[in-house]
Design a protein that fits this description.
With 169 residues, this protein is mainly alpha-helical. The chain has 2 domains: 35 residues; 119 residues, no CATH class. Helices cover 34% and strands 7% of the residues. Helix 2 packs antiparallel against helix 3.
Length: 169
């Protein structure tokens, strides 16, 4: 039986260890950025995009001949009116970590395709509380003096602190 030369054995072990360390360091450089926390909150952008498309998909044929209607299997809509209201409530809660936390920003005005109006663009004046369909005890209501394309001077909020969030399909 032939014995391995100690210098060759040491060199082979050293090369193997060096390769493993290099691979480990490269893997950490690629994986650690994926595991770090980002301060950027994209929840409002994502939620406005989501409710835009669900608001458009009412599955009711439009009287406008130039309008493109959404396909609905067997004429059934993608969601119910209560489901639409739950999507709106969810979009307001999207930026909170737990249900007991308060939202990181307040919604002043919401102008999107309205599921209840066959997907036509319009103002959503309030979002009803769960299980209700009226503005009594609403989950959210717009601030009338701040709502609209132009903010009224009577708006109690500072214009410089308002943020416009838009979605263009």
């Amino acid at each position: 039986m032939k014995e391995a030369d100690p210098s060759k054995l040491g060199k082979a072990l050293s090369d193997t260890t060096t390769r493993r360390v290099i691979i480990g360091v490269l893997l950490m450089l690629m994986i650690l950025p994926l595991l770090t926390f980002s301060e950027t909150d994209y929840s409002s952008v994502y939620s406005i995009r989501e409710i835009f498309w669900f608001g458009r998909s009412s599955c009711k044929p439009s009287s406008n001949p130039n309008s493109i209607d959404f396909y609905c299997p067997k004429g059934k809509p993608w969601l119910t009116q209560e489901g639409w209201h739950e999507m709106l409530r969810g979009s307001l809660r999207a930026s909170v970590a737990t249900e007991t936390d308060s939202p990181s920003r307040d919604l002043i005005w919401l102008y999107i395709p309205d599921f209840n109006k066959q997907g036509r663009m319009g103002t959503i004046p309030y979002i009803p509380a769960s299980g209700k369909n009226t503005s009594d005890g609403a989950f959210w209501s717009q601030i009338d003096s701040c709502a609209g394309f132009e903010v009224s001077p009577d708006c109690p909020l500072r214009y410089t602190e308002m943020q416009l969030i838009t979605y263009t399909p």
